[in-house]
Amino acid sequence: MRVLAKSSFPGRLLLAGVSLTVSCLALADGRGHSHAHAHGQAAAEVSLQGKVLKVEIHGAMDNFLSFEHEPKTDAQRAQLKALQDHLKDAAWLVVPAAQAQCKVTSLKAESALFDLGKPVAGHADLKVDLVFECANPSALTSLRFTSLDKGRRMKKLMVETVGPSGQKAVTLTQAKPVLELK
Question: pLDDT value at position 33?
Fold first, then answer.
């Protein structure tokens, strides 16, 4: 077996290539993600293209429940069921400005905790993908992230937006849960 010398350029190049390949495989396999698992904060991506508004929210399940492991008690199972029921209503997470007349066309919520038949490894996250069709997209001046309301455990939401007005990144809080789009 040949050992690559630390100063060997081809060796370093090979090591970098292997590292990049492993990272890409982890991302493709769903074990890695570009967003850090952090309590008290989550991330959102918002895009508006034509009449289609897309909102993706992702963060630690602890932001939405008081736990992020497999439910161990009847109370935790009930809390998880209640969250799943709430997640069927987009307004529980985000409300577009009324004058834009946006209607939900797709809502998908995913978490390892939702499949109670499979063991949860480590800490669970929540990812929600929302798609709205807006009858009057030029009137979409704001989005209220109700996910920051009602005393939930999420304190900050880092939002990246892209749309007709350009790109920006802002941090929303419980005191300021409204994303101004114009």
Answer: 40
Residue 37: per-residue pLDDT: 60
In contact, 23 and 156? CB cutoff 8 Å: no
Q: Which residues of 91-112 are buried (b: 16+ CB within 10 A; e: fewer)?
A: ebbbbbbeebbbeeeebebebb
Report, as ranges of residue numbers, the positions in the chain whose pLDDT lies below 70: 1-39, 150-152
Q: Are 105 and 155 in contact (CB under 8 A)?
A: no
Q: Which amino acid is at 78?
A: A
Q: What is the DSSP letter of 164?
A: T
Residue 156's SS3 state is: strand
Determine the distance from the C-alpha atom of residue 147 to the mean position of all C-alpha atoms in its chain, rounded to a whole number.
11
Joined tokens for residue 174: 């419980």
Residue 92 region by backbone torsions, left for phi larger than 0, else alpha for psi between -120 and 50, else beta: alpha
User: Which amino acid does the sequence have at 153?
Assistant: R
- The residue extents of the domains of the chain are 1-32, 35-180
Asked if 147 and 157 count as a contact pair (C-beta separation under 8 A), the reply is yes
